[in-house]
Design a protein that fits this description.
The chain is an alpha/beta fold. The protein contains 12 helices and 10 strands. Helices cover 44% and strands 13% of the residues. Strands 4-1-10-9-8-7-6-5 form an 8-stranded parallel sheet. A two-stranded antiparallel ribbon has the order 2-3.
């Protein structure tokens, strides 16, 4: 039987949402406020429980709760792409099914990390996940985290699966992105996984970004992708150069340490992290404060 699904359109700026913690518990009040702040800033969608959301240090119940809160607070205003990936195919399937039941619009499924499967293993992994649910799947290629690169050939094979609708590409290779966009089905979306590569990737056909920086500057990242979508790359490039120092500051130490530090400086939530991540050094905190000072008043 041919599988028929309704696939939402994924274009623009999507925020890889941080997870606020307080006393090692999810700060639900701050999380709801973050959702509203993002939507007020014109963001196109939200991506809870990815790397930036510290999903790797949350229990299954906590991940489900974060996804449920974001879906509830969003209330249909923008799509929610739930992070459900991991390095265990069975648990990834279970997490994706639960996200579907919770009402997510799609699942972001990262290349399995640590195990370092072959390309054949990646195809088997994603095929198993895609066949287990009718939730649209966005692949997530991030060699720096996973330890392996999903090749364009593998991505293109997976693009033929009915529920695989796009990819978050964080390989850092514009050649790889170009090859995927040039040969993928027309409705297959490519989203930048790196803020600083959004404009170059959109210039060759990417549809937007899953952004870290938009946690604190959603309006600016939204404007950048909007310029790219209408082909105004002079405006997009100008915004890129304006935002570039802040984009780079978000990775002074690691992700999400810097962006959570920035969010706390702006009074959006605590900068509390879960071990093995630790608080940012005072010197780097000062650098982050300087970077965000041009976009909003520093309150702490």
């Amino acid at each position: 039987m041919v599988q028929t699904i309704t696939v939402p359109s994924f274009h623009g700026a999507f925020t890889a949402l941080i997870t606020p913690f307080r006393n090692d518990e999810i700060d639900e009040f701050a999380l709801r406020n973050l959702v509203d702040f993002q939507i007020a800033g014109g963001i196109a969608g939200l991506v809870p429980c990815g790397t930036t959301g510290e999903a790797a240090t949350m229990t299954d119940a906590e991940r489900d709760r974060v996804i449920a809160i974001v879906i509830e607070q969003t209330n249909g205003r923008v799509p929610v792409i739930a992070g459900t990936g991991g390095n265990d195919t069975r648990r990834t399937i279970e997490a994706t099914r639960r996200a579907n039941e919770l009402g997510a619009d799609a699942a972001l499924v990262v290349v399995p990390y640590y195990n370092k499967p072959t390309q054949a293993g990646l195809i088997a992994h994603y095929t198993a996940v895609a066949e287990a649910t009718d939730l649209p799947i966005i692949l997530y290629n991030v060699p720096g985290r996973a330890g392996i690169n999903m090749t364009p050939e593998t991505t293109l094979r997976l693009a033929g699966l009915p529920t695989v609708t796009g990819i978050k590409e964080a390989s850092g290779s514009l050649d790889q992105v170009t090859e995927i966009i040039g040969e993928a089905p027309e409705d297959f979306v490519v989203l930048s996984g790196d803020d600083s590569l959004t404009v170059p990737m959109m210039s060759v056909g990417a549809t937007g970004v899953i952004s870290v920086a938009s946690n604190i500057i959603p309006a600016e990242i939204s404007r950048l992708t909007q310029a790219g979508r209408v082909g105004d790359f002079a405006a997009a490039a100008a915004l890129h150069h304006e935002l570039y120092p802040l984009m780079r500051a978000m990775f002074i130490e690691n992700n999400p340490t810097a962006v959570k530090t920035a969010a706390s400086i702006l009074g959006l939530c605590s900068d509390e992290l879960r071990l093995p991540l630790t608080a940012m050094s005072p010197a780097n905190r000062e650098r982050v404060a300087e970077a965000i000072g041009a976009f909003a008043p520093v309150t702490a």
